[in-house]
Design brief:
Distance between the termini of chain A: 30 Å
Helix content of chain B: 25-40%
Distance between the termini of chain B: 27 Å
Strand order of the largest sheet of chain B: 4-3-2-8-7-1-14-15
Order of helices and strands of chain B: EHHEEHEHHHEEHEEEEEHHHEEEE
Radius of gyration of chain A: 18 Å
Structural class of chain B: alpha+beta
Number of helices of chain A: 8
Number of strands of chain B: 15
Oligomer: heterodimer
Number of strands of chain A: 12
């Protein structure tokens, strides 16, 4: 029992030879976010406050695909989305298509708390943001040189692909895209000292996505889910996460089949979605934590009141 | 068991004072759409094609809240959404914020079949529609006089409400509430009228599919997305079953209703009807909703905790039923 927290900065084709200048800032952010989250939990903040706080930090960090540092649409613009869910009440909030809101996750929370709705998108969400007086900036704030480069390479690879329905494997790799196309999403799950669970997920989406494309992140039950048993935040290829209803399935396996958190999460990641498409972090009502993924790696960190701490990118065998 | 089965719905949550003529029109529309689906199934059209075809017919008719006849946003415009899912490989497609596409369900199908994504919304969806050459019309095409009147009533009802979650005491003075105290999503049922449409089918080969389409919540904030385009909430199909939901969008999302019917069958090995009943009784809390479902073995089921649901169903062995209450 006791509090527990897990967070991720995206699962994907993260090359093992990731240069230190790309690896260290991300590890430092993960560490910092973990510390912030743990301190908040120790100070008896609610799980909902903690996950929002941690995801805000991850959004503000330009090295992850959320908020500043979001990947770009095919038009070179940023369209951010996020969702948050309170396990105790199953209240939730989600946003999509944001272009000027500094912290999408906070807007998602406002949708949950200040409107009779769950999900607002595009112009309507931006208008709501202004009504609520949340921090907004010029869209260029979110765009980083790394992502401009990613988009360029993704476009070059796609030029060879005439038909979208061809598997991406058929497109010859022009040059390795930094961390691969699948770099995705940030998220945090937590259980607080009162035993309440919460989850929050935020992303810029898929590199070179069509304008208006929505992924799993804002779809409750897929990229994000929390109830009285567990809290889940997923990352990877949105389309696969949607089909596999990842978030809800972890909880449903626990609820309907009596699986443990670890077994439920492992099942969903191994059997529910194709290899190389999904990772997740999850905590249970009894303070367990699990962080499975079927991709090359996943930026992740966790800590429990019992003293277990972990921070990594690839599987533990290959960490120094 | 086995054989094909089909169910359609035109919304859960029906005004008990709905004029008999309206009830009759609704039943006729449901019957017509059901028959369209049945013919298609008899000619061996696959489930995914049948659900699209039937929902197109429901969208084109102004009676229910989808396509033409959609509920209006707070600005008096129409923003439609829809989703479709093909059971065998769980492929799916969804759209939201569609304003000029005549048949949103067909656009959702194109997202599934012709784009690398599962869900497109707003200007991106409209742009994709243009590229695909689907039939497009002015937003006015979708707006009916009936709904313009409803929007006005909804605004009046809402202006009394400070917080939609607080029970409405002062509403007795509002004419609309005096006739029907039933509320959904904070509005009197005479005004709210969810009337999302949907269709679920299992074809002669045991393949399941589901499709749902809607204009959404009357007087909704622009940009509001409900359950209908959300896979796992309003729509779901897999090997075992196909499900389409309707009612209070927020309750359906929180309860991940459509996915739960399938999950109960898969993980708890409940029968279709038991899964449907469980979901309606236990997954909605205070929410109000209904759903239709089919299983790969040719069963059809429906459940609702609302005051009525416009629905119809039929199976290969000749069973056919259309109802409201």
């Amino acid at each position: 029992m006791g509090w527990a927290i897990a967070l991720h900065g995206g699962a994907g084709d993260i090359p093992k030879d990731l240069p230190p200048e790309r690896r260290k800032p991300r590890e430092a952010t993960l560490r910092r976010c973990l510390e912030i989250g743990v301190a908040a939990l120790k100070a008896h903040k609610s799980a909902l406050d903690v996950v929002e706080l941690v995801v805000q930090e991850l959004e503000n960090c330009p090295h992850f695909n959320a908020g500043r540092g979001s990947v770009l649409t095919t038009d070179g613009t940023v369209e951010m989305e996020a969702s948050i869910m309170d396990g105790k009440t199953k209240n939730c909030g989600a946003v999509s298509g944001l272009t000027t809101v500094v912290n999408a996750i906070s807007l998602a929370r406002l949708v949950m708390e200040k409107t009779p709705h769950i999900y607002l998108a595009f112009d309507g969400a931006e208008a709501f943001a202004r009504e609520q007086g949340v921090e907004t900036v010029d869209s260029s704030h979110f765009i980083t040189p790394e992502n401009i480069e990613r988009l360029k390479q993704a476009r070059e690879a796609n030029r060879v692909q005439i038909d979208y329905t061809q598997p991406i494997k058929k497109a010859p790799k022009i040059a390795p895209v930094p961390e691969g196309d699948q770099i995705g999403t940030v998220g945090c799950v937590a259980i607080d000292t009162q035993g309440n669970l919460a989850t929050a997920t935020s992303t810029g989406g898929l590199v070179n996505k069509m304008v208006g494309r929505i992924g799993d992140t804002p779809i409750i039950g897929t990229g994000t889910y929390a109830n009285h048993l567990c809290a889940v935040s997923a990352t990877g290829k949105g389309e696969s996460i949607i089909r596999a209803t990842v978030g809800r399935d972890v909880a449903a396996l626990m609820e309907y089949k009596g699986l443990s958190l670890e077994d439920a999460a492992a099942y969903v990641v191994e059997e529910g979605a194709p290899k190389g498409t999904v990772g997740l972090v999850a905590v249970s009502a009894t303070g367990e934590v699990t962080m499975p993924y079927n991709t090359t790696g996943m930026f992740r960190a966790c800590a429990t009141e019992a003293g277990h701490t972990e921070l990594g990118i690839w599987s533990s065998e290959s960490n120094e | 068991m086995g054989g094909w089965a089909i169910a359609v719905h035109g919304g859960a949550g029906v005004d008990p004072n709905l004029p008999p003529q309206r009830q009759e029109e609704a039943k006729q529309l449901l019957t017509r759409c059901l028959n369209l689906g049945i013919s298609a199934l008899r000619s061996s059209l696959p489930a995914i094609d049948v659900v699209e075809l039937v929902v197109r017919a429901l969208e084109s008719d102004p009676l229910f809240n989808s396509g033409r006849g959609s509920a209006l946003t707070e600005n008096g415009t129409v923003e439609m959404e829809a989703s479709i899912m093909d059971g065998p490989k769980r492929r799916c497609g969804a759209v939201s914020g569609v304003t000029t596409v005549k048949n949103p369900i067909s656009l959702a199908r194109l997202v599934m079949d012709k784009s690398p994504h599962s869900y497109l919304a707003f200007s991106g969806a409209e742009e994709f529609a243009k590229q695909q050459g689907v039939e497009m019309v002015d937003n006015e095409y979708f707006i009916t006089e009936d709904n313009v009147g409803m929007l006005k009533l909804a605004k009046e009802a809402n202006s009394i409400l400070y917080d939609y979650r607080i029970p409405i005491v002062g509403l007795e003075s509002c004419g609309a509430a005096a006739e029907s105290p039933i509320l959904m999503n904070g509005l009197p049922i005479s005004v709210y009228a969810p009337e999302t449409v949907g269709c679920v089918v299992v074809d002669g080969q045991g393949r399941c599919a589901a499709a749902t389409s809607t204009g959404g919540l009357m007087n909704k904030m622009t940009g509001r997305i409900g359950d209908s385009p959300l896979i796992g909430a309003g729509t779901y199909a897999c090997d075992l079953c196909g499900v389409s939901c309707t009612g209070e969008g927020e309750a359906i999302i929180r309860g991940t209703l459509a996915r739960d019917v399938a999950a109960l069958m898969e993980y708890k090995e409940l029968s279709l009807q038991d899964a449907v009943d469980y979901v309606i009784n236990k997954r909605l809390d205070e929410g109000k909703a209904g759903l239709i479902a089919v299983s790969k073995t040719g069963e059809v089921a429906c459940g609702f905790n609302t005051n009525g649901m416009f629905r119809g169903c039929a199976t290969e062995d000749g069973f056919m039923k259309v109802g409201i209450w």
